[in-house]
Design goal:
The protein contains eleven helices and 14 strands. By secondary structure, it is an alpha/beta fold. Helix 1 (11-22) packs parallel to helix 2, helix 5 (93-114) packs parallel to helix 6 (147-165) and helix 9 crosses helix 11 (317-330). Bound molecules: nicotinamide-adenine-dinucleotide and uridine-5'-diphosphate-4-deoxy-4-fluoro-alpha-D-galactose.
């Protein structure tokens, strides 16, 4: 299938690209490198020994996007491009709405103009907001508590309305839980700029000596050991979910929402212990105050994805930490290690 990946140079996009190339799809990546590096795509070529198209461009650039669509004529789009830092979204709401919502609108126009009617969208568990019950199933009400989550929920609604108004089209909305880990080769992985916001990249940078110690944001939550509990999902499992979602979209019209998680929660302290097993040494930490906006626990009911997509997670916490450690230890400065 001819598949266009917006944001394909990013963390989840690059891993999905490897998966799609292995399955023989023809791919075109559109990315403006706002949060990624062309080096990731060079490495995908090496890992997969397959070529693909790359177009440097901004998804909000109507003319550019339309030209790319008219030329490549994708049969489906996987829409990863977006801004994703929760804290930054509070400071720069307009930038977040512009990229995540306007970007989606412009993308839909380019799709319509070129006759492409199938889209897979990177949504997030953050659309649910504070849990009314756990695990979250797809019917849990959506009430996002931050700007980033609202942009994602708004984009979901835009996509569902577009599909309703255009018979024969289809959208698969994938609500990711907490993606972590790296490709088994250690050649591509998560490469946050500046101080990592997320737990696993932070731990990995402590392990490699880039940071002195992990700050654990609170140990007085109502969880097994008092630290926050999340549903971590290996990025390679997440990549496979996109390949299966493409198959599903090819055979179905309408909008369908899927949780993509393992169904199991891991606490911060459990994750730290798992990473210590992977890297082979103890990691320094201190417990500090809770991070504003954090919830105690968040994990998925992933049964729908198993039933309709034939997808379930196959990799465990040790696989996640071992692959993250391989990537971090072999590329201590991320993609800049190459320069
Ligand atoms: P990422 O930042 O690594 O990848 C996003 C990619 O989009 C980057 O390559 C960036 O350069 C590109 N991009 C940003 N703005 C663009 C624009 N205007 N035009 C073209 N390209 C643009 O992030 P990721 O972790 O790979 O996330 C991918 C998607 O999944 C995002 O939409 C994110 O909101 C969503 N998501 C991520 C997580 C997570 O924890 N990583 C969780 C849930 C959902
Ligand atoms: N944590 C720490 N110290 C850190 C970083 C995180 O203790 O330095 C804790 C947090 O308090 C939380 C857990 O580790 O309990 C996970 O935090 P992350 O920041 O890694 O992940 P979140 O669950 O807060 O949010 C992430 C993404 C969101 C996405 C969400 C989906 O940042 O964009 O997962 O569930 F929407």
């Amino acid at each position: 299938m001819r598949v266009l990946l917006t944001g394909g140079a990013g963390y989840i996009g690059s891993h999905t690209l490897v998966e799609l190339l292995a399955l023989g799809h023809q791919v075109c990546v559109v990315d403006n490198y706002a949060n990624s590096a062309p080096e990731a795509l060079t490495r995908v070529r090496q890992i997969s020994n397959r070529d693909f198209r790359v177009e440097e461009g901004d998804i909000r650039d109507r003319d550019r996007l339309t030209a790319i669509f008219t030329d490549f004529r994708p049969e489906a789009v996987i829409h990863f491009a977006g801004l994703k830092a929760v804290g930054e979204g509070e400071e720069k709401p307009v930038a977040y709405y512009d990229t995540n919502v306007t970007g989606t609108l412009v993308l839909l126009e380019a799709m319509r103009a070129s006759g492409c009617g199938k889209i897979i969208f990177s949504s997030s568990a953050t659309v649910y907001g504070n849990p009314l019950y756990l695990p979250y199933d797809e019917a849990h009400p959506c009430s996002p508590t931050n700007v980033y989550g609202r942009t994602k929920y708004m984009a979901e609604q835009v996509l569902a309305d577009w599909v309703r108004a255009n018979p024969g089209t289809g959208a698969v909305l994938l609500r990711y839980f907490n993606p972590v880990g790296a490709h088994v080769s250690g050649r591509i992985g998560e490469d946050p700029q500046g101080i990592p916001n997320n737990l696993l990249p932070f731990i990995a940078q402590v392990a490699v000596g880039r940071r002195a110690k992990l700050a654990i944001f609170g140990d007085d939550y109502d969880t097994r050991d008092g630290t926050g509990l999340r549903d971590y999902i290996h990025v390679a499992d997440l990549a496979r979910a996109h390949a299966l979602a493409l198959d599903y979209a090819a055979d179905h019209t309408g909008t369908e929402v899927f949780n993509i998680g393992t169904g199991t929660g891991t606490t911060v302290k459990e994750m730290l212990a798992a990473f210590e097993r992977a890297c082979g040494h103890a990691l320094a930490y201190e417990v500090v105050a809770r991070r504003p906006g954090d919830i105690a626990a968040c994990y998925a009911q992933p049964e729908k994805a198993e039933r309709l997509l034939g997808w379930s997670a196959t990799r465990d916490l040790d696989d996640m930490c071992a692959s993250a450690w391989k990537w971090q230890s072999e590329n201590p400065q991320g993609y800049r290690s190459e320069e």
